[in-house]
């Protein structure tokens, strides 16, 4: 219609344009709805699975490594709750009144224990080249979803803030994953390795059964978390590195534990492969999970929008410019692993290192982080 | 790394509350609170208020946990808990109370409270009279009676019962309304507290002087950027404004400050605590905060009656809720570490930059439960500890006796510490020490049983002859509010080369770090 036209020809074109436009608007609307529906359905598809991951339900998980053996006690073993009561370390009753069940106060040497564990874990992992972080504990619910959690599902683990789109984090994995949201990282900057300390909040809705006693399952706890952003070809290697760090940490404290390659039935949607560490807890007379190391490959990065620009193989200036000729950005891989989940560690330390006289010995690596404390003495009642 | 401070634990002798040992819930608070200067007190409580122009929303406590529409269509709130308010004392000292209310700019309606109290008393008398009559009728019916006499008595009994039920209902409503109105009355004021608005606060002490810089001073945000210590931008995307990540040496700084503060205060005889950060909203109210008021500082959890704490004062105050403590166990002194969450709704103005005003921060808080006669003394002790701590770090600061215009409803007297922040080119509040006397304890239900003066076994038994329980006094004071301390440390100890020197007392708690070096960019 740009040139000079006969009025009747122009009119016919105008009509045709209008009818095309109407058709287009309708189709574009359909496209939006379809895209939304496609997203909604496709987001339910879980991450792929590592070829070596064991198939089946949790019992099919495979033992990767066993360190130490259950300590033999020459006296009656107490569980952490009883030790806590006798040593005046916790108060669950007062917390129940003030906050509700599964909340607690830590007191006296338990405060030193928590601070010591956090300080020790941060120091140990920092010196292995991880950047220390302290993170927000309130985040937008969209970030929670992009990490692969479901803030508003039934039996959700996530606390929401009233009157806002914000939630409390259940793990520092969320704010750390979010730190590079909607970014393109340069290849030389990878891997980015963070060790993050935060409090974590979990509703534990739907957690029934006996494994809820005392510090084993609580609504609020401190955790030191490792997080890695890396190139896809490197994620298996960093998964091994992360589980190696965990095993070193727990071995150094003298814990007896086993590392499991978790079966597919136990993997959450984001997880390509997961290694769990279960430590021996004599008071519970069984193994309890103290840590988890997951490789999420590009599941989270595709949702959080985190990519990197691979360095071009041709080093000439022309090809290192953005735009035509530069390599397209790829999605990074993300991994997360627990360095130290404080309450479960406290359970392990109290129950494993209790003495016949009621005292508890502090493992050597923690002592410098606890003002030199060697032992929690029995209280003089 | 914490030096082993207070080991061995404190055995707490808590007695479970014996029912109806103290028939009167309205115990007299001791003589301490009788003398009142004419003071002003606006309607707010703000533990961390830095700027004079910022109005806080920690108003007087309300009781709105459940709202009911009245017959007249007005929405009233049914109190879910009762404060043990001394109505008789208020009535007997109404002029003094009225003056205090006026001078603290409270909107409490004293006339209404007194009116409701009188109605309550006469209604209560009426109910008791009816109950007595009903008992008489019941007793009369015990013997052998003529059928017609019995029938008359039955009718009388029934009519008395109906009347009683109606009156008892009225009594409940009246009690609720009385509570609602009376809870608005602010705490009494220390006679020495300065009158007036915040500018009338009086300087108690000045330590040090502003450092002279031979180079251009940077503020903490610029230092943080250059030393790669914070990230506000990423946090803004992930969480929203006024959130932040701490990185690298700032993580060491935060951990160092917390560990140091816990160690320093523990060794002064305080029991260390780590507390829940989610609490029932009723506990928040009982401490004198208003979780659901307009411009509230309090985050609420969706689908629950729980809130996030804005200070460890709340879970620590709650730790002895509804208890009777023994006198020998007092004072109970706690040093508590927690994260704190504040909406900062209504905080306008320039004092919001960077770490100065944030939604989430770490704080080490001191809390004391003591006998009434001791609270002034412990108030001095708490401010003394704070001054020692800040002096030891080499900070320049001033301690202020806050004027009545700045006292929140629970506060009898408040001392604030303001430290010099060269990057902001002014003083900023880093800590606050408040004596709440029995305001919180009357709401939290925390009493103690004074040891009897007569040591004979007979008088030390509970029941007849033992001394009635009294309400404790509570005090709270900031040992260390981490972000503001970080502002102080970075801005005051920056060097010309861009590095920051770590004060000596913190170094053992930061792995021996002496200085944050300038980044090699």
From TrEMBL, chain A:
Database matches in InterPro entries: aa-tRNA-synt_IIb, aa-tRNA-synth_II, aa-tRNA-synth_II/BPL/LPL, Ser-tRNA-ligase_type_1, SerRS_core, tRNA-bd_arm
Top class in the EC scheme: ligase
Molecular function, one GO term: serine-tRNA ligase activity
Site note Important for serine binding, residues: 338
Record EC number: 6.1.1.11
Compositional bias segments (type: Low complexity): 316-328
Keyword ATP-binding: yes
Gene Ontology CC: one annotated term: cytoplasm
Domain Aminoacyl-transfer RNA synthetases class-II family profile: 79-363
Keywords: Aminoacyl-tRNA synthetase, ATP-binding, Ligase, Nucleotide-binding, Protein biosynthesis
GO biological process, one term: seryl-tRNA aminoacylation
Annotated positions binding L-serine: 171, 202, 225, 336
Protein name: serine--tRNA ligase
TrEMBL record, chain B:
Alphabetical keyword list: Aminoacyl-tRNA synthetase, ATP-binding, Coiled coil, Ligase, Nucleotide-binding, Protein biosynthesis
Binding site for L-serine: 311, 342, 365, 476
Site positions (Important for serine binding): 478
GO biological process: seryl-tRNA aminoacylation
GO cellular component, one term: cytoplasm
Gene3D superfamilies (UniProt xref): Bira Bifunctional Protein, Domain 2, Serine-tRNA synthetase, tRNA binding domain
Pfam families documented for this protein: Seryl_tRNA_N, tRNA-synt_2b
Disordered as annotated region, ranges: 446-468
Signal peptide from the UniProt entry: none
UniProt biased composition (Low complexity): 456-468
Binding sites annotated in the UniProt record for ATP: 342-344, 358-361, 429-432
EC number(s) on file: 6.1.1.11
GO MF annotations in UniProt: ATP binding; serine-tRNA ligase activity
Residues in coiled coil: 113-140
Domain Aminoacyl-transfer RNA synthetases class-II family profile: 219-503
Stated name of the protein: serine--tRNA ligase
Taxonomic lineage from the root: Eukaryota, Viridiplantae, Streptophyta, Embryophyta, Tracheophyta
Gene field: LOC103710988
């Amino acid at each position: 219609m740009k040139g000079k036209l006969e009025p009747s020809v122009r009119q016919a074109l105008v009509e045709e344009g209008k009818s095309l436009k109407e058709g287009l608007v309708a189709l574009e609307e359909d496209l939006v709805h379809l895209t939304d529906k496609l997203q909604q359905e496709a987001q339910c598809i879980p991450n792929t699975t590592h070829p070596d991951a064991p198939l089946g339900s949790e019992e099919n998980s495979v033992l990767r490594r066993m360190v130490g053996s259950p300590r033999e006690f020459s006296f009656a073993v107490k569980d952490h709750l009883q030790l806590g009561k006798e040593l005046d370390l916790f108060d669950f009753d007062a917390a129940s009144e003030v906050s509700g069940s599964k909340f607690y106060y830590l007191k006296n040497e338990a405060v030193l224990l928590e601070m010591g564990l956090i300080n020790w874990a941060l120091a140990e992992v920092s010196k292995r080249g991880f950047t220390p972080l302290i993170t927000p504990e309130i985040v937008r619910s969209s970030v929670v979803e992009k990490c692969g959690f479901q803030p508003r599902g039934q039996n959700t683990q996530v606390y929401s803030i009233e009157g806002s789109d914000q939630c409390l984090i259940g793990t520092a994995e969320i704010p750390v994953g979010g730190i590079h949201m909607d970014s393109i990282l340069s290849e030389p900057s990878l891997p980015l390795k963070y060790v993050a300390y935060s409090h974590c909040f979990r509703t534990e809705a739907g957690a029934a059964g006996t494994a809820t006693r005392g510090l084993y399952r609580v609504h609020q706890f401190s955790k030191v978390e490792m997080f890695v952003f890396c190139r896809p070809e490197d994620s298996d290697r960093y998964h091994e590195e992360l589980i190696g760090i965990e095993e070193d940490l727990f071995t150094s404290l003298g814990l007896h534990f086993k590392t499991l390659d978790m079966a597919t039935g136990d993997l959450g949607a984001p997880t390509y492969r997961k290694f769990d560490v279960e430590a021996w807890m004599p008071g519970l007379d069984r193994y309890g999970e103290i840590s988890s190391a997951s490789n999420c490959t590009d599941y989270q990065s595709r949702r959080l929008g985190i990519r990197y620009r691979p360095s071009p193989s041709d080093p000439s200036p022309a090809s290192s410019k953005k735009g035509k000729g530069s390599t397209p950005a790829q999605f990074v891989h993300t991994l997360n692993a627990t360095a130290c989940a404080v309450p479960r560690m406290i359970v392990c330390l109290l129950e494993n290192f209790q003495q016949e006289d009621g005292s508890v010995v502090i493992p050597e690596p923690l002592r410098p982080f606890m003002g030199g404390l060697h032992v929690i003495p029995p209280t003089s009642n | 790394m914490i030096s082993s401070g207070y080991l061995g634990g404190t055995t707490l002798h808590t007695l479970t509350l014996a029912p109806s040992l103290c028939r009167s819930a309205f115990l007299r608070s001791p003589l301490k609170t009788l003398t009142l200067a004419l003071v002003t007190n606006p309607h707010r409580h703000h533990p961390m208020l830095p700027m004079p122009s910022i109005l806080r929303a920690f108003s007087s406590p309300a009781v709105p946990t459940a709202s009911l529409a009245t017959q007249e269509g007005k929405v009233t709130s049914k109190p879910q808990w009762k404060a043990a308010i001394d109505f008789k004392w208020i009535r007997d000292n109404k002029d003094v109370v009225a003056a205090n209310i006026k001078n603290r700019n409270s909107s409490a309606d004293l006339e209404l409270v007194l009116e409701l109290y009188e109605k309550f008393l006469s209604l209560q008398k009426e109910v008791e009279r009816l109950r007595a009559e009903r008992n008489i009728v019941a007793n009369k019916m015990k013997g052998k009676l003529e059928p017609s006499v019995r029938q008359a008595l039955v009718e009388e009994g029934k009519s008395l019962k109906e009347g009683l039920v109606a009156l008892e209902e009225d009594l409940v409503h009246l009690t609720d309304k009385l509570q609602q109105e009376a809870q608005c009355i602010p705490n009494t004021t220390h006679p020495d507290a300065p009158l007036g608005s915040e500018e009338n606060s009086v300087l108690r002490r000045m330590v040090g002087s502003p450092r002279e810089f031979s180079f251009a001073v940077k503020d903490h945000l610029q230092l943080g950027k250059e030393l790669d210590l914070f990230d506000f931008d990423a946090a803004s995307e992930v969480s929203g404004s006024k959130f932040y990540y701490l990185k690298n040496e700032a993580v060491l700084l935060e951990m160092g400050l917390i560990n140091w503060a816990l160690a320093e205060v523990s060794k002064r005889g305080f029991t260390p605590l780590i507390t829940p950060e989610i609490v029932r909203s009723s506990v928040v109210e009982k401490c004198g905060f208003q979780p659901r008021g307009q411009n509230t500082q309090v985050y609420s959890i969706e689908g629950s009656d729980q809130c996030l704490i804005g200070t460890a004062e709340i879970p620590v105050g709650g730790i002895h809720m509804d208890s009777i403590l023994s006198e020998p166990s007092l004072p109970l002194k706690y040093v508590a570490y927690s994260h704190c969450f504040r909406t900062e709704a209504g905080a306008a103005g320039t004092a919001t930059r960077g770490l100065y005003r944030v939604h989430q921060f770490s704080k080490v808080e001191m809390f004391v439960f003591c006998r009434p006669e001791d609270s002034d003394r412990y108030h001095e002790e708490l401010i003394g500890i704070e001054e020692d701590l800040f002096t030891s770090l080499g900070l320049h600061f001033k301690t202020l006796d806050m004027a009545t215009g700045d006292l929140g409803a629970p506060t009898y007297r408040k001392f604030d510490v303001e430290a010099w922040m060269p990057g902001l080119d002014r003083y900023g509040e880093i800590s606050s020490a408040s004596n709440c006397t029995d305001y919180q304890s009357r709401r939290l239900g925390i009493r103690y049983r004074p040891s009897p003066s007569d040591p004979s076994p007979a008088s030390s038994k509970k029941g007849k002859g033992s001394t009635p329980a009294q309400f404790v006094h509570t005090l709270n004071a900031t040992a260390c509010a981490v972000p503001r301390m970080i502002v102080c440390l970075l801005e005051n100890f920056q060097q010309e080369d861009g590095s920051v020197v770590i004060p000596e007392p913190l170094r053992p708690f930061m792995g021996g770090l002496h200085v944050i070096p300038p980044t090699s960019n």
